[in-house]
Design goal:
This protein is α+β, with helices and mostly antiparallel strands. The protein contains 19 helices and 13 strands. Among the domains are: 28-204, no CATH class; 310-439, no CATH class. The strands form four sheets. Strands 9-10-11-12-13 form a five-stranded antiparallel beta sheet, sandwiched between helices. A three-stranded antiparallel beta sheet has the order 1-3-2. Helix 6 (109-125) packs antiparallel against helix 11, helix 6 crosses helix 12 and helix 12 (218-230) crosses helix 14 (246-258).
Amino acid sequence: MTEAEIARGRVSHRAASPRPSRLVVSPRQLNRATLGRQMLLRRESLDAAAAVQRVCALQAQHPASPYLALWNRIGGFDPADLDAAYARREVVRATLMRVTLQTVRAEDYPEFHQAMVGMLRHSRLFDPRFTSSGLSIAEADALLPAVAEFTARPRTVGEIEELLSTLLGERKKGVWWALRTFAALHRAPADGPWSFDDPPSFVAAGPKPGGGDAPVDAVGWLLRSYLRAFGPASARDFAQFTMLRRPTIAEAVRAAVLAGEITELAGPDREPLIDVAGAVLPAEDSVAPPRLLPMWDSVLLAYFDRSRIIPAEYRPLVIRRNGDVLPVILVDGYVAGVWRPAEGRIEITTFRRLSEEEWKGVEEESDLLTRFLAGREPDVYRRYAHWWAKGMPSTEIRLLLPSIISAEQSCRTGMRSRAGVRNAHARPWTYRSHTLMRSRRSLPG
């Protein structure tokens, strides 16, 4: 080899020197990382407010869902703890990420709202439902101080709409619809079984808990909170979670990487991922116990690639076209079916065949959930029963009985055991047993 060739080789070698290779994370590691950070590998000992902050946000368009989410995550969870946290405004329920109601820690709300308000405004102020009112954006903004002052104490929708009619000289349809989405307002706790009534009342967010007016990078704050709860994740995942624009996210990621707050990894197929610096990933073989998650649980909606938790073939069964997200069972960390209350018990519909050992774990969780619901609302989510009435593809359906039940009751229900399978020939279950037999042809056993 000539000196020139050696020199060229050296130059080529120096030019090709890459940065240290990124840690490559497997699909199963991503699954276990999510479960660990969401306290779904084991229930932990935290108060309700701390747990809400730990998981970033709990989607809350149904008021029961945050309670059921925390029941899955906190050891010995007492729903009265969340009642009290709402009442003391340690946690708040407000429109934030994905233009949906979220339960978040009160001290996180100002930054979360600041990060999201541009997107929330855009989702309403350019919609025909608002523009048909004839108001300009400036005129809508001019109403905000009066609304904030008026809602210093909880106000009903009727009271707020009356205020707006007085200020505008007439009732203008669509104005309150827009303002309630992006104004700094919380849903006011009430006396419902899950702390909130329908129709709701609203109360102004007020100053940040603990004071502190120093400017912050709100999108960066939300990004770090998201990664602590859901990382490692991609920029596309964060965009799915928030609906923020990609350039906004890219700027926040660059700033956080430069500040050493987050680190870069590689996921399946070498997809670029980010995570909070110093975060530890659980082992791939970490045991994931069964869980019965509520409707709209955040782990089902926090990623662009939802196969981290939901096998692709089950996604349309869980996330319906109108936006409903059904309550699911997790087995070995992945969605394996759905659940619903039925006649004071829990009905489990599986999308794949479970082993008897897996059924035992699901049965134990079902028993605990039945007891939990009994004190609040045994038939929670009843308005969504139409999804089952239309026919639910399944491999097996079991109606799980509470552990304390008489033999006579068990015989009357046509159950073979406390976790018995419905008798396919019992008349009360004819429709569902037909669904069961049909679905066995459409789903893997």
